[in-house]
Amino acid sequence: MRGGLGPSAPTWVLLQQVVVRGLVAVKFLALGRILGPSAIGSVSIALLAVAIAESLSDTGLAQAVIQGRDTPTHQELGAVWTTLTTRGIVVALLLVALAPVMNRQFHLGNALALLQLAAALPLIRGLASPAYFVVQRNRGFQQLAGIETAAAFLDCCTGLALALSGAGAFSLLIGMIVGDTLKSLLTWITMRPRPPIRLAWAGIGHYIDFSRWIWAGSVVNLLLNQFDKVIVGKLLGPAQLGAYQMSSKLAQMLLTDAAFAMGQYLFPTFSAQHRHDARIAARRVRLYLMIVAGGLAILVVLLRMIAEPLFAFILGPAWMSAVPLFKIFVINMAIGALIAVFVAYLRAVGDAKAVTHASLIQMVLLIAIVPPMTHYWGVTGVAWSMTIGMGSAATWMLYRTLRRHDARPVPPVG
What we know:
mainly alpha, transmembrane helix, PST family polysaccharide transporter
């Protein structure tokens, strides 16, 4: 990992992380203070529906294109675009159809239009050019940072302007829609090669063996990452879900987002290193893990110490009930940051099934411990259960990562 301002330098990933996550933090925290827990909870349920649908329909094609040995051909990109666009259309229609059911189940009152509006997000994302994945594969981080920053800036400005003008919970969703629209347009305007815009399904069968594990991991992660929100939203309502989401989101912004952003650099970088020399990639991931773990330990201690004044200053007294949850989530998200490094490496070396196995271990553990912990400790028990489950998944991925030094390399796709 070298510094500098070259197109493939990690500096661009860091700048993207600082700017994009900073804009997201400003938007989310400002809207939280303006709208309050109930409105944030309603939007969270709408976004939860999108996350569930996208996870269940995840094709894994983006990761397969990045990890594959050979650059995809023009025809293969056309088939990828057809598949992803079709997925976006189907998911959008499904969300519109199921919106009345979700509105009743989560007791949202007059939020039906909010749920239906959220259906535009997967449609817009599905229309983006798959050339984006080729740029990721080629480690064009400078170009990626420019597009992501522009989209996040427009999202933030639109959301805040609408919230201040009285648009309520719709302001957050409309901002996301406008930002995603700009991003999809820029993938077609600025990125090459452009895929043919026609229906084409054949030519990507060789991605299936790898992408099926990505899909399986997405389905399992759906159960792991969203079911707690479903439980809180269903049993306690939008206001409690808003507090739960805000504490989780703030911890994520402070701890996990940087690691996920770095994963955008590490995945294609580890893939390239593994193709060249698997042992070098194995040694480097151990170094990164030691650095990340040391930094996270310091941050967790600091954030738990300043949790109450942090919430009082940023969100105000209406959100102080979320402080105990935040103290748990900083531990949770620190583990999640380590997992992001594990996932980038294991997928880069072709061992995507190890990530899925880790998620399955976590799911089995959660099924066993969530009921009693929820019974005795309520929403706090749910939060601690998620932390314990993530710790088990991280332990398994650490074991698989350490084995890679002596293991026979798994050949890349293609």
